Amino acid sequence: MANYDPDNVFAKILRGELPAHKVYEDDKTLAFMDIMPRTDGHTLVIPKNPSRNLLDIDEEDLCAVMRTVKKIARAVRRAFDAEGVLIQQFNEPAAGQEVFHTHFHVLPRRAGEPLKPHTGQMADQELLKAHAERIRQALAEMEDDQA
């Protein structure tokens, strides 16, 4: 695959070389808190298999990622009492991609509430830990609702 860097930050998270506040994991995907969130509950969803972005991801991996994006979108909406959910995905530098491992941003939204600017500053780890717990709780409640 063209220009995939196996030492990108998300590949390191997948290998356990860097920490992450994990929210959800299955055999094909991982969801975790963005360390520079633009909203409370800003979560990232990535495939476990390497791909640079939407332009080269395997179709089966893309389907798995989108199933997880939907699951996480429903959970962040519930966990943060959001009116809506913003899904963002960037492909190549000209489109704003900074980490070259396919990923989707899932951001809970409320009307009139601006997104925080991307400052490059990491959020408080205890806050991210608490947000991850809220999302995991919402996922558990959603499973209970389906039982």
N-to-C CA distance: 41 Å
CATH class division: Alpha Beta
In the CATH scheme, what's the topology name?
HIT family, subunit A
In the predicted model, the low-confidence regions spanning at least 5 consecutive residues are none
Helices, by number, come to 3
The biggest sheet amounts to: 5 strands, antiparallel
Strand tally is 5
Q: Helix proportion of residues, in percent?
A: 25-40%
Computed over alpha carbons, the radius of gyration is 15 Å
Q: What do the pLDDT scores average to?
A: 95
- What's the CATH H-level homologous superfamily? HIT-like
Number of domains: 1
User: What form results from the Cα inertia axes?
Assistant: globular
The structure class reads: alpha+beta
> How large is the share of residues in beta strands?
15-25%
Element pattern in H and E: HEEEHEEH
What is the architecture at the second tier of CATH?
Answer: 2-Layer Sandwich
Description:
The chain is an alpha+beta fold and 147 residues long. It has a single domain, classed as 2-Layer Sandwich (HIT family, subunit A). Helix content is 33%, strand content 17%. The radius of gyration is 15 Å and the shape is globular. The N and C termini lie far apart (41 Å).
